[in-house]
Amino acid sequence: MNEESVQQETKTNPRHHLQLWLRDFIISVMASFFIITFLYQPVKVEGTSMQPELRDQDRLFVNKFAYDFEKISRGDVVVFYYPRDTQKSYIKRVIALPGDNIRIDDGRVYVNGQRIDESYVPKRFRDARSMADMVVPPEEYFVMGDHRSISSDSRDFGPVTRKLIYGKAAFIYWPADNMGVIK
Description:
Organism: Alloacidobacterium dinghuense
Number of helices: 4
Structural class: alpha+beta
Catalytic activity: Cleavage of hydrophobic, N-terminal signal or leader sequences from secreted and periplasmic proteins
Largest sheet: 8 strands, antiparallel
Subcellular location: Membrane
Enzyme class: hydrolase
EC number: 3.4.21.89
Radius of gyration: 23 Å
CATH topology of the largest domain: Umud Fragment, subunit A
Number of domains: 2
Oligomer: single chain
């Protein structure tokens, strides 16, 4: 048997094709496991408290390592374990950082004495709730939903500790008409 016939036999051998397919499948599963475990996690939005940016049943990717390289910033949309039941995850926008003074007066939010621009909150989603001044404790973040009139957020359960925040909402992948980077 010459070298050319061995190569030809290998190319047409069904067992060889199965081995290649199996190898590629195992590599794909391992890569997917690594990505989902350490980098990005797919999640489904359940509820309307982040409308209009996120809608009920939207599917998105959460960047699980973002805050290993950067600090949590005001305006970030974060995913965290609900402080009263860590089996549940919530998604909200960061409004105030550790050490910030926050107050809400008739629905208007003030951080460190300055009214913050909340262009992401449509007028029809605002509410008139007020909240007395408070200083956000160290390692905690004050979060709120964009649909203020229905959101259960730090106004109800208090600031969220850093250890409960497990990622930054990064990209909506479904439905296609809402696909894009989360602002």
